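Table S2 (text version). Query chain:
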Amino acid sequence: MSRKKSLGLTTRRSVTTAQINRLVKKALNNGVKHTPAKGYKFLQDLNIGSLFQTESGQTRGVLISCGVNATVIITKAHDKAELGKKLIASHTEVKEITEV
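Corresponding structure-token output:
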């Protein structure tokens, strides 16, 4: 006969559904506010036709359109497969290139 071990998955204090709902409501009360890193902007904050460079510095492109996702043309990348027209999240942090 084999003995079954107790998994011990219970917590010391049980949390009710009402407590969880109250914590979630409190956490999301004002919504989530994202801010880009210093010196960077989100793609959605750039003007159409702006040149940009990603954080890694290996990818450059041009912004074509921006909604929930941004349509961009990648002009320089470390991998040739990444070149061309792509969809990227509009909250991607990029550096705007002002001088070519």
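Notes on Table S2: Strands lie at 41-42, 51-54, 60-66, 69-76, 84-89, 93-97. The mean pLDDT is 85.
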